[in-house]
Design a protein that fits this description.
The complex is a heterodimer of chains A (about 220) and B (about 425). With about 220 residues, chain A is mostly beta strands. Chain A has a domain at about 70-220: Beta Barrel (Porin). In chain A, about 10% of the residues lie in helices and about 50% in strands. Chain A is built from 1 helix and 8 strands. Chain A has one helix at about 5-25; strands at about 70-75, 75-85, 90-100, 105-120, 125-140, 160-175, 180-195, 200-215. In chain A, strands 1-2-3-4-5-6-7-8 form an 8-stranded antiparallel β-barrel. The radius of gyration of chain A is 24 Å and the shape is elongated. Chain A starts with a helix and ends with a strand. The radius of gyration of chain B is 27 Å and the shape is globular. Classes of the chains: A mainly beta (about 220), B alpha+beta (about 425). The interface between A and B is large, with 81 and 60 residues. Strand 8 (about 200-215) of chain A pairs parallel with strand 1 (about 25-30) of chain B.
C-alpha cells in the first residue's frame, strides 16, 4: 500500500484531538460517570439550598483493579509488563517486523525492555511515558541476485545486521474491561545497525508508534 | 478550546495508524522500524561493496548507459586478421550457437605463442583461473576483465600472465579444485578472485589467445528464446559493440573467418552473428535432450543457420543421435514447394515429417562440399505435439535421397528432444 502522508497526518491529528478531548475531560470530572464520587465543600459565603451534610466525609475506595502483571499482544509480537508500584512498571518485549531491501525482504527481531511512568487513571484512560532499549537483529529472508554474479548478496552471511534501538515514548492506555486494555504510544527512536560481512553501519532517528492489547493477569 | 472526546474516533485513529505501511521516518511497530533500518544498511552495503567470488571488494562504478567501454585494441599483433562472429558451433561442446567470438590469426602455431593480449580499456581484472594439465605448473589462464560494474569480458585465455597479474598487489582469494571448466585434459584449476585495477593497453598475458568473449552485460537481456529459463540472458553480446567507434569500425570489417590468407566476411546482418536463433512456431532453434541439464551442451541439438553464412542451414548435433554427431550443413529451400524436403527450418511449422539429404561438411574454414560420410543417408524430423515443443529426429540410411526414400517413417532409433 503506498504511503499517504496526508492520510497519516490526518490520523495523527485526529489522535491528538482525541487525546486533547481526553485531557479536557480528565480535568473536568463528570459526576454522572461511573468513576469515584467527589464531594465538594461549599464555598465561603455561599447560600445553602439544602442542609449541609453532617458527619464524616466518606471517600469511596478506588475499585480494586488488577494492575500488577499484564501480558500484551499485537500482530508483531508480545510483551510482559510488571508494575513495581502503581505508577511505575517495567516491561520485557519481543517484536518482529519486515521491510523490503534491494535483495528482498528483511526480517527483524527486537528484544527489549521498557520503563513506564503511569499517571492517574481517569475515565478508563491512563497516560504514560517511558524509555525503551532494545537489541535488534535483522536478516535477509530471501535473496535475489538474478543476473548479478558480483552481487554482494552472493557472499555467505551477507544481510545479517545487529545493533540497538533506544527511544522515549508517550501514550495512553484505555481499559475496556477490568482485565483488558489497549495502549498506544509514539516517540522518537534511534536505531543503529551494523552489517555482519561488510561492517557497514548506519544509525537513524525515526518516529515509531506502538500499540498492544494488554491482559492484566492480577 | 473544548473538544468533546470521541472514543470511536480515537480507536479508529489507532486502527488507521496500525494499517499504515512503513514510511521514511515513521513506522508502526519497533519491529518494522528495525527491519526498515536493516534494509537501509543492507542497501548501503550493496552500494559500497560487491563480491568478487568469495571476496568482498569495493563496488566497481556503474557503466551507466555507456557502450564505448573498450578504448584499446586487445591484440596489436599484425597476424590478427579476423573475428569469428557469434553463433559458431562445434559439437558436442558447443552444440548451441556460441556466446562468444573468436580471434583468428594468420600465423603459425608457434608464432601465436608470442602474441600479447592487452586490457581493452580501463577497468579491473576480477578473476584469474589457472588451468593445470599436470600438477607441476598451470598451462594456461582464463581472465575476467570488468570495465565497469555491469559488464564483464570473460574467458580471455593466455598461456602466461603479465607480472602484475601473476603477483597482484591487491587482496586476492584463491581456491583450487578438480573442476576442468569444460577443458579436456585439465586435472586441476585454481580460481583467484581479486579487484586489480588495470589501464587500457596494459599487458594481461601472452600466448594461447582463442576466445574473444563472452560478454556479460547485466544491463540488457537477450530476448526471443522459446524457453528463456534455459539460458543466461545477460550473456552472449557482441564484444565489437563495446569498442569506441573507430575500433568498432575496424573490427566490424573483419567479422568473418580467415581461410589461410583469404578473408571470408559475414555479409548478412547482424554481422556479429547471434547466439539466439529460436523461431517460435517452427523447428528452428535450440532443442534439449530430455532430463539432461542445460549445460554441458553435449546431449542436445540445434537446428540453426551458419554463423558465417546464415543462408546455410546447420544441424548441430551433440551425442544423442546415433551416427549423426557433429555439425552438418545443407542448402535449404526458402519457399515451401510441397515436397517437405530440405526445407529451411523456419518453414517447418506443423506435425508432418520432413526430410533432409545432401548434407555438407561444415565450411568453417572454407566452402563445404558433400559430406562423404553421410552419402545415401537422410534425416527425418517431426514435431510431434500440438505445441510444437517436442521433436523426433532420426538419421536413416536408405541408400537413396529423400524423394526416393518416401514414404518416410521413424524407426525405434528415433530420438526425442524438447524445447
Amino acid at each position: 500500500m503506498p504511503v499517504c502522508w496526508g492520510m497519516r497526518v490526518g490520523i495523527v491529528v485526529v489522535s491528538l484531538l482525541s487525546l486533547g478531548g481526553l485531557l479536557q475531560a480528565a480535568e473536568s470530572p463528570d459526576l454522572g460517570a461511573s468513576g469515584p464520587l467527589y464531594l465538594r465543600m461549599s464555598a465561603p459565603g455561599a447560600v445553602a439550598r439544602a442542609p449541609a451534610a453532617k458527619g464524616t466525609l466518606v471517600v469511596p475506595e478506588e475499585p480494586l483493579l488488577p494492575r500488577h502483571l499484564a501480558i500484551g499482544f499485537n500482530d508483531l509480537g508480545g510483551q510482559l509488563r510488571l508494575h513495581l508500584r502503581p505508577s511505575w512498571a517495567v516491561e520485557g518485549r519481543f517484536l518482529m517486523g519486515s521491510a523490503n531491501s534491494d535483495f528482498g525482504q528483511v526480517h527483524a527481531n527486537v528484544f527489549g525492555m521498557r520503563g513506564y511512568r503511569f499517571f492517574e487513571e481517569r475515565r478508563r484512560f491512563q497516560l504514560y511515558a517511558g524509555v525503551e532499549g532494545d537489541y535488534v537483529h535483522t536478516s535477509l529472508r530471501s535473496v535475489d541476485t538474478t543476473g548479478n554474479s558480483n552481487s554482494i548478496a552472493t557472499i555467505s552471511g551477507f544481510g545479517e545486521t545487529s545493533g540497538y534501538a533506544l527511544g522515549a515514548f508517550g501514550g495512553v492506555e484505555y481499559r475496556f474491561w477490568k482485565r483488558l486494555a489497549i495502549d498506544f504510544d509514539i516517540g522518537p527512536y534511534m536505531i543503529g545497525l551494523q552489517e555482519k560481512v561488510t561492517h557497514v553501519s548506519d544509525a537513524t532517528l525515526d518516529f515509531v508508534a506502538n500499540t498492544a492489547l494488554n491482559v492484566y493477569l492480577f | 478550546m473544548f473538544i468533546s472526546f470521541n472514543r470511536t474516533a480515537f480507536l479508529a485513529a489507532i486502527a488507521g495508524l496500525a494499517l499504515q505501511g512503513p514510511a521514511q521516518a515513521f513506522h508502526f511497530g519497533i519491529g518494522n522500524a528495525a527491519a526498515a533500518q536493516g534494509a537501509k544498511v543492507v542497501n548501503k552495503a550493496n552500494s559500497e561493496f560487491m563480491a568478487s567470488g568469495s571476496l568482498v571488494v569495493p563496488r566497481i562504478p556503474s557503466c551507466g548507459s555507456n557502450m564505448a567501454l573498450f578504448i584499446n585494441p586487445p591484440v596489436t599483433d599484425a597476424s590478427f586478421v579476423s573475428i569469428t562472429p557469434l553463433g559458431h558451433v562445434f559439437p558436442p561442446g558447443h552444440t548451441f550457437p556460441a556466446d562468444h567470438t573468436y580471434y583468428n590469426f594468420n600465423a603459425s602455431t608457434t608464432a601465436q605463442l608470442g602474441i600479447n593480449q592487452y586490457a581493452p580499456g580501463n577497468g579491473w581484472v576480477t578473476q584469474i583461473i589457472a588451468l593445470y594439465y599436470n600438477l607441476s605448473a598451470p598451462s594456461s589462464y582464463v581472465l575476467t576483465f570488468q570495465p565497469c560494474l555491469e559488464v564483464k569480458l570473460t574467458n580471455m585465455s593466455v598461456n602466461t600472465l603479465a607480472p602484475a597479474l601473476a603477483h597482484p598487489a591487491v587482496p586476492a582469494s584463491s581456491s583450487c579444485s578438480s573442476d576442468n571448466w569444460g577443458t579436456q585434459g585439465v586435472i586441476q584449476s585454481c580460481v583467484t578472485n581479486m579487484e586489480l585495477p588495470v589501464s587500457g593497453g596494459d599487458l594481461l598475458g601472452t600466448g594461447g589467445l582463442v576466445d574473444f568473449g563472452p560478454i556479460e552485460d547485466s544491463r540488457f537481456q537477450i530476448t526471443g528464446f522459446i524457453n528463456p529459463s534455459r539460458h543466461d540472458l545477460n550473456r552472449g553480446f557482441c564484444p565489437v559493440n563495446y569498442f569506441v567507434p573507430s575500433l568498432k569500425t575496424t573490427y566490424t570489417a573483419i567479422l568473418g573467418v580467415n581461410n589461410g590468407s583469404t578473408f571470408i566476411p559475414r555479409t548478412i546482418p547482424p554481422l556479429c552473428g547471434t547466439v539466439m536463433q529460436d523461431l517460435p512456431g517452427t523447428v528452428q532453434g535450440d532443442w534439449y535432450y530430455p532430463n539432461s541439464p542445460n549445460v554441458p551442451e553435449n546431449p542436445h541439438l540445434a537446428l540453426i543457420h551458419h554463423n558465417l553464412d546464415p543462408s546455410t542451414g546447420t544441424f548441430s548435433v551433440g551425442a544423442s543421435i546415433p551416427g549423426f554427431g557433429g555439425s552438418h550443413d545443407f542448402v535449404p529451400k526458402t519457399t515451401a514447394d510441397g515436397t517437405r524436403i530440405n526445407y529451411n527450418f523456419s518453414l517447418v511449422t506443423d506435425n508432418q515429417i520432413y526430410c533432409y539429404d545432401t548434407l555438407l561438411t561444415d565450411f568453417n574454414w572454407g566452402a563445404g562440399g558433400a559430406d562423404p560420410q553421410l552419402a545415401g543417408r537422410i534425416v527425418l524430423l517431426q514435431m510431434t505435439d500440438a505445441n510444437l515443443d517436442t521433436l523426433k529426429i532420426e538419421l536413416q540410411n536408405p541408400g537413396a535421397a529423400c524423394a526416393a526414400a518416401a514414404p518416410w517413417s521413424f524407426s525405434s532409433a528415433a530420438v526425442t528432444f524438447q524445447r
